[in-house]
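User: My advisor asked me to double-check a structure prediction for Amine oxidase domain-containing protein before group meeting. I don't want to rely on an old file, so could you generate it fresh from this sequence?
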Amino acid sequence: MNNVVTKVAVVGSGISGAVCASTLAKNGVSVTIFESARGPGGRMSQRRELTEDGKELLFDHGAPYFTASNTDVLGLILEWETRGLIAEWKENFGSFDFISKTFIDIEKEGSSKRYVGVPGMNSICRALCQEPGVESKFGVGVGRFEWLEDDNLWSLTGLDGQSLGHFKGVVASDKNTVSLRFTDVTGRPPPLDLNLVPGLAVKMKQIPVSSYFALMLAYEQPVSSIPVKGFSFKNSEVLSRAFCDSSKPGRTTTSERWVLHSTEDFAKGIIAQAGLQKPSNATLTKVAEELFQEFQNTGFNIPQPFFKKAHRWGSAFPLASIAREDKCLWDGGKRLALCGDFCVSPNVEGAILSGMAAASKFVDILSCL
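Assistant: Sure, here is a fresh prediction for Amine oxidase domain-containing protein from the sequence you gave:
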């Protein structure tokens, strides 16, 4: 068991889990990441699409960029910049008012630093999941966390019922591991039974979340009528923001690619009709048309794209921060940490801070591991 008990399992490879795993590994803790998706990133993942004629298109269809003000996060950003994992996105951004059909604010280049992964937003998570001391298992969903009292260990079981191993500690960086939404979507109980950690149960019982739809568009020629590369919408019930994905550093420019985000209310309306299960192709096609129509309603000369596809982020943004000062939830007796943007703030910086905090809990008891 010597090689087993030194291990910590990290469930979820979004930025919070990836930062946590990397930090643990740098401090001598052996880490195994379990991720149900095919690759790392969570909302920082990059979507790969193929057109009918075989052309590859890449979209950052989740988080478009991130900002930072915390000293510890800025230190990580400097390291990532040095490694070529991120770059500053230096473009003009603005805010568009649907009533007046004008830009009411255009923020000049460089007035605030926006960072993006290079060549995709998932580049940071991918690199962190490949660092020495980190073993990553993609396409492996965790179906059950079990605490073995006699052995003082965690036992993890996959969604397929197969044993994933025993671990001295566990980090859950995906709120769905304890959320009733997991049951709504899959029909199964959440992987982590909160009765095992009653001290954390109250805080984790209900984390309200918002959903939104993303629309991916690709054009042969630049949409020259839009004067900025990213903007928010005011007074639209359908769209919240739009970004020219292909204008980011390190992206291919064989086509111009845009990503639009719906409003929370628009997504609520669709989900009320279609439910929380994976949206049908018919639903996504309808959503794509409605979002694109609103984009055209801006009054800009926006042509039909050669590629158009919608994606739903079902629990995209937490609407509460449940561990502000501690930055993560921690049960020292069972060596269980819960981390993510839902602990600090609903953005990339909040997720990074929470992952760092979870790792520090284990580093503090390193002698026990």
